[in-house]
Fold:
Amino acid sequence: MTKYVAAVDQGTTSTRFMIFDHEGKVVGIDQKEHEQIYPKPGWVEHNPMEIWERCKEVMNGALAKYKLELKDLAAIGVTNQRETTVVWEKATGKPVYNAIVWQDTRTDTICNDLAKDGGQDRFRTKVGLPLATYFSGPKIKWILDNVPGVRAKAEKGEVLFGNIDTWVIWNLTGGPSGGAHVTDVSNASRTMLMNLETLDWDPDMLKVMGIPRAMLPAVKASSEVYGSVGGVPVSGDLGDQQAALFGQTCFSPGEAKNTYGTGCFMLLNTGTKPVQSKNGLLTTLGYKIGDQPAVYCLEGSIAITGALVQWLRDNLRMFDFSKHVEDYASAVPDSGGIYIVPAFSGLFAPYWKSNARGAILGLTRFINKGHIARAALEATAYQTREVLDAMNADSGVALTALKVDGGMVYNNTLMQFQADILGVPVIRPVVAETTALGAAYAAGLAVGYWKAVEDLRVNWGKDKEWDPKMDANTRADLYKGWKKAVTRTFDWVE
Structure:
């Protein structure tokens, strides 16, 4: 029987298990959503036990659907929503609190207090990140400060921290009975606690945040064997955006991809040396294969893209299914002069303003449902343009085409507008679910299923390309309007 490789892709709104063959083609898939918990404005939580249940369900579901067994897999990789923070009891595997999701803004006060001495970029050269509610470090501190008894247990090593990758791998490889407590460089670089040079936890950062080292996982390569489940090696671990970069085979410096999901994330491979951003981007780890040198990236993170469409669907009940946004958007020739700035949880790159809030600007009586749907899609494209401009400025390399992936890349209206507002071609690969593919690639490389990253390039194939059709003056005018709209959302929260 041909062996396959698979990946657990644990995302912000759902979990899936995908099985791939040697050519990188999808052999099997199962997917399930989990609950989004909003205890207060700006707070977003998940139930870690529910997430682990979903992982087991989709693994069993995908194997059963395609009449496969665990033993048909050569390796399993894990990819995950990044920065979402779980703290749990080592002895029981029970979380001490719900997972605090990357979008959550409750750590605003912690970040502001830390920024009083040295500003928002106080730790940027060391960890590559500004002080922002996005990252795991302040979330861990919040749990230690606010959940009774947890700090004392953390000092004794009785509770463990992990981003979702760590939580899933620990449970997969045995949980309380000797599960591997590990993370990889890509996920560790999203905590504000990892030193970009040493690729290990930074003692000064732990001290500043008041986080005991005893609760932290070991930092490993993105592709190595961490443990096993049912005799199958668990051997790949990448944060979702880095996994997409890997799945898009962006292995050379200067290659970039943009993933359109709940949020939008553009990553540019900058090679084996970290590049510090002067334009509001993050310096992050791309991946590390075994004992090869680590590869760094510049990243532009946008908090709300697909989540804006979900908001139209769930909160405003504009349509029943997210895919219907395109039907409304394509019924009008443009957005009627309105802009939607979806700063629901502040603005990420390149602004890093957690006190911004969302707005719809330019409303007139002329505006209908179609214009709102179209403006929601255009908001994703404008935010991507801002990040691309920052990347070009930081890297000194003008991007000539953009590789795209994720759920929204099947929306032709969005992809055409994206090409128009960027002025460069936008290219979708045959396998657009590159996040799971990247984690499967990392797992397969670790066990010799693929020999080297160059073997993976041959698997990449172009499915569709959108070329810019908009004239330069229209592009400039629309973008100028967007820039004006964004500034109106700054400093909304006092």
User: Anything to note?
Assistant: The longest helix spans residues 369-395. The chain has a mean pLDDT of 94. The CA atoms of residues 264 and 384 lie 8 Å apart. The radius of gyration is 21 Å.
